[in-house]
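Q: Hi! First time asking for a complex rather than a single chain. Here are the components, and I think there are two in total. Is that enough to go on?
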Amino acid sequence: MNVRTLLLGTCSAALLCGYANAETLTIATVNNGDMIRMQGLTEDFTTKNPDIQLEWVTLEENVLRERVTTDIATKGGQYDIMTIGTYEVPIWAKQGWLLPLDNLGADYDVDDLLPAIRSGLTGDDGKLYAAPFYGESSMVMYRKDLMEKAGLTMPDAPTWEFIADAARKMTNRDEGINGICLRGKAGWGENMAFLTATSNAFGARWFDENWKPQFDQPEWKNTLDFYIKLMNDAGPQGASSNGFNENLALFQQGKCGMWIDATVAASFVSNPAESTVADKVGYALAPDTGLGKRGNWLWAWNLAIPAGTQKAEAAEKFIAWATGKDYLKLVADKEGWANVPPGTRTSLYENAEYQKAAPFAKMTLDSINAADPKNPTVKPVPYVGVQFVAIPEFQGLGTTVGQLFSAALAGQMSVDDALAQAQQVSEREMTRAGYIK
Amino acid sequence: MARAVSTRRMAVATIAAWIVALIIFFPILYTIITSLKSEPEAIQGFNLIPSFTLESYVTVQTQRDYFKPFMNSVVLSVGSTLLALLVAVPAAWSMAFSPTNRTKDILMWMLSTKMMPAVAVLVPIYLIFRDTGLLDTRLGLTIMLTLINLPIVVWMLYTYFREIPGEILEAARMDGATLWGEIVYVLAPMAVPGIASTMLLNIILAWNEAFWTIRLTTTNAAPLTAFIASFSSPQGLFWAKLSAASTLAIAPILIMGWFSQKQLVRGLTFGAVK
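A: Yes, that's all I need. Here is the structure of the assembled complex.
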């Protein structure tokens, strides 16, 4: 055996050992633009951490939610990192299903996380149970040209009264222009996200301090009446089937005067490659009714470590990389500041280059800061969450109520019937679940 | 004697058949058309003429690896079909040629398991898979798909075997055929069209099964159904990409179905005219 063969053999053995020692992290995620971008940039992480390999499982949001819930509830241990929403984090942390993120590293700068987002991810014990990958609120996106044509000027913080008036004036059905496009598709994360946030501005709430459902109160009737009349007068046809993507397409095609939805949509509607109205879009805070609460929600997609994993240390390393400041800079260097995942760090909004590249930055930050998940409503409530109620029963209940409200929008039932049935099913579910004694 | 059919009547029947075929095939055709559109074009509404862009196929190819889920789909569908036949042929033989008073009840019971919603047993099955280490393995999923499709396979084979006169098997037995010999050398050759169509149908069912294949896999055993599911997006346009992924996923089974359609039809109509 000569020296060359010996060297070659040693190197191969070392490589094999290295490979055998490499830990593979399985990461469950949704198919959003920012997530896909991250998958393309992971070489930066694996180069810095050659002993860690990454495997991705990308699924549709609802399937992912069901899939990771099954795995985490049964301690299946199939995932080392999960992408979960702001809704799941407090519930799962309480159940002991998530590991606290105690070792994100000295340079992670946890205090740089936006306070509103961070508070939603912090457990009762004050520990962080998930790190935000991107955050969003909701705001008004409007067509500046149509607003001008209607003889109106959008204030930075409009009221619902102004929005309704503007929507009716901007509507021109002959030209295919709808004054306003709002979510109508049934689902706790679809129409109920929008309607729950809107109801906060109207002084409504899901439950009183004793968990008694409040759909029989005048505030909910005002909310639903207002929404349905507005949509009938100024909304698109078949609005009861429209969710985020459908309204996005309508707005991009110039068929909506206004659209109130996730702040993340701003980067889509202002992108000339996708949107026909990219240079005509203005932004404003979600509307209020003067009662002290705005109808803007708060959401973040976060990375968390399930309690069943055997690779917690490597998983935390990855989370620190994916949600750290350096990652934002990496995206900016490779794909430009406009493509940086928004809504998680204060420092991003102080960055002059980002402000220049993203004209919607200030409004996004203001919208996120205006949301208060721990005090979401005018009257006191026993729950956390702006556009959802952070209890396990909400997914099912929210979707059932969403179906009733969607049916009311489609004209299949009256507002009074929809509210009466919502009250009935909520009372039954909350009694069954033990909230109402 | 065949009845004389007028040319006009034949033309009407042919047109009617084409219309029915087109209606059945239309969702697949529209998926292919959508896959050739750009994303904004795809969501704009009904439009049969795409811009013939291949950008969605390029994106799908660059974002995900197609080969691994494709191989998993092949292994799972063929493996589960062979395993199901191994169990179902003797089962259907015994039910067809040695029926008891309870045979009909057993057949009905087997079919009734198909009526249970899959989600009702998700957690127990998940726990069994977790405890036996079968989560995200091809073996585990092959067993699962075999069990899911077994009632249909047994039923189909039972129906075909019933058409074969028992006297032929008796004659084989008189000539000294063993039980195994009787099944392999006498029954199987006569039931080839039936077995082949059962096999083809089972491969198609296993290929398209989405509930369990998505829920019991993560990365190693995930087939093409999981590949398709990964292109649906809650925020952002995805119809064209999803259609491109679906087209790539159904293409192999569509081609297989096209080439074996004669066999499939022959098997499905086997015993219709006696």
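A: The radius of gyration of chain B is 23 Å. Let me know if you'd like any chain examined more closely.
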